[in-house]
Design a protein that fits this description.
With 140 residues, the protein is α+β, with helices and mostly antiparallel strands. The chain is built from three helices and nine strands. Strands 5, 6, 7, 8 and 9 form a five-stranded mixed sheet that branches. Strand 3 and strand 4 form a beta hairpin. 16% of the residues are buried.
Length: 140
């Protein structure tokens, strides 16, 4: 006999349960200028300012993905890290054209893995990398 209330989700492994994960992720990003970065993430990516703490030069931006925020923290010489958040979009070419129209710098051409995915890497003004992704698997 199976009880739906006891069914485990894919993240309900013993290790995940021990961690106590919640459905929230904030991607901390180093920036040089908080005001300029808030404007860029709002105007270019369409994120919404959730809150700002000037005393520590930090803010969080709400993304359109439930539970995913971008945290912006000021550092004089922000290091660019190896973390590459990937945003799933309906149409990579359209999203890329929108960003390019706003002067966003991309890393080369859009890459296509036939039958699987289209990918385009872009950068914020501080050189932090992000990627656009479009699944091709369900497009027939």
């Amino acid at each position: 006999m199976s009880d739906a209330s006891t069914a485990q989700s894919p993240l309900a492994s013993p290790a995940a349960s021990a961690m106590g994960y919640r459905p929230m992720c904030t991607i901390a990003t180093n920036v040089k200028d908080l005001d300029a970065s808030i404007a860029w993430y709002t105007d270019v990516l369409g994120l919404e300012l959730l809150y700002r703490v000037d005393e520590i030069q930090w803010c969080e931006m709400k993304s359109p993905v439930p539970g995913v925020n971008i945290g912006l923290g000021v550092r004089e010489n922000p290091p660019v890290t190896g973390c590459m958040p990937v945003w799933e979009v309906a149409d990579v070419d359209s999203a890329r054209a929108t960003l390019e129209g706003k002067g966003v710098r991309f890393d080369g051409d859009t890459q296509t893995v036939p039958g699987m995915v289209k990918l385009a890497t872009f950068f914020d003004p501080d050189g932090n990398g992000y990627m656009l992704s479009q699944s091709l698997a369900d497009m027939g």
